[in-house]
Write a structure and sequence with these properties.
Layout (H helix, E strand, L loop, with lengths): L16 H7 L6 E6 L5 E6 L9 H12 L14
Antiparallel strand pairs: 1-2
Length: 81
């Protein structure tokens, strides 16, 4: 499918309905723009997920919280069936 799209003064463009439908993109949806070394551009539907980086102190706190309920218990492991 080839479609010609015009870029407006603000740099925005509107994807034709047929393109949005083909990509499965709805209002508020996101696209991944991939430009290779030759300058070819590929649009793919995508989702951006926020990533949180935890400090060493936060990780230690999480580990303590996870281990606290198990303190003093003898753990037995069962073989997977």
């Amino acid at each position: 499918m080839i479609k010609v799209v015009t870029v407006n003064q603000r740099g925005a463009l509107t994807l034709p309905k047929a393109v949005r439908e083909k990509l499965g993109v709805t209002r508020g949806g996101q696209l991944v723009v991939d430009i290779d070394a030759r300058g070819e551009t590929v649009l793919r539907p995508g989702v951006v997920m926020p990533v949180k980086m935890y400090s060493a102190a936060q990780i230690e706190e999480f580990q303590k919280m996870n281990e606290a309920p198990l303190a003093g218990r003898k753990l037995r492991w069962r073989k997977a069936r």
